[in-house]
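Anyone? Bumping this.
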Amino acid sequence: MYQLISDLYLICRSITGDGVRKTLAILQQNIPLKINQVPTGTKVFDWTVPKEWNIKDAYVKNAKGEKVIDFQKSNLHLLNYSIPIQKKMPLSELKKHLFSLPEHPDWIPYRTSYYSENWGFCLTHRQLEALEDGEYEVYIDSSLEPGHLTYGEYYLPGESKEEVLFSCHICHPSLCNDNLSGISIVTFLAKHLSSLSLRYSYRFLFIPGTIGSITWLSLNESKTSQIKHGLIAAGLGDLGKLNYKKSRRGNAEIDKAVIHVLQHSGQDYQINDFSPYGYDERQFCSPGFNLAVGSLTRTPFGQYPEYHTSADNLDFVRADKLADSLEKYLAVVDILENNRKYLNTNPKCEPQLGKRGLYGTFGGTQNKKTKEMATLWVLNLADGNHSLLDISDRSRLEFSVIRDAANALFKGGLLELTIN
Ligand code: ZN
């Protein structure tokens, strides 16, 4: 996952354009992504697909002809979506188009201007302070023309048409935690799940933030009723603890599943209520859809100083944290896949486990008592109303222990699946 982030790091992405296409082409080496192209001008609910932006080169030269700001050194130097310009101007005029971070004088900020036509440069505060009075040449070789919004989609069919959605944004240039870590986690999650036989169907979206989810929802409204659970993946490689932002529903199965995984992780974590700000859960949880989509991240966006700056680089994300994040996503999938409701076929008093060979399964191994308790909890609460996750939470036993007990009882004929 870290290698994939490194491979994608230098590409200048935006909400449209060749950077997105190049990124999706690299992801296609891992998963069979379908690339969709939506023309500029397409109406998507209250929004319109914007013009496509592409960038070749950009710089600012001083009077001596030296490049004092150079896009080739970092794609963050350019205000993303800058219109083309070639013009000479005094420093006072240039400064109106410069952005820096005085509180972090060695970092380049990341700024965009998608929906109002503008141009600008981002630079370190030290660079800004070193600019002397005089004439500067501004050169931006960009294009902003009718084209397409491009996104990637991978649909992995399972036994049921009901779906689990994983979505990440793909619109940031050289920034690692936000958003390459999300891209990498979703890619490897998809790759792993494609090797399994699955109960649910899975949909993986690689879309530009905001306009991408609005576009997808607008063009695929009929599919949304199949989405039973979903997570927005972002910010998954930093050192911080895992943070779960609940879906708008607040008590959906996805909310319970993620909270269960975090509670049993043995690690510090934080649960946050839904709020209508953040990543694309804003669109999936808008009232007209209200899908059961939460967001599992590490440190939330905006809560670390490196966020949206050049310091969110390859040193800021760590392979072990990516692995830990993926492990949590897989544990959530395991719960969703196995969280069924059963009926005890022998509900009058406890069944005699020994004669069915079920008591023996406790013997000899560690956690004998835990397994026995899991079996008793499942038998007691398998009344068709409690899911295995409900039983896990009620018994405070880890889902995998309850799942294994239920599987053994099912094989032993003491449980049957309920229809729902
Ligand atoms: Zn961002």
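Late reply, but here is one note on the structure posted above: Residues 172, 178-179, 308 surround zinc ion (CB under 6 Å).
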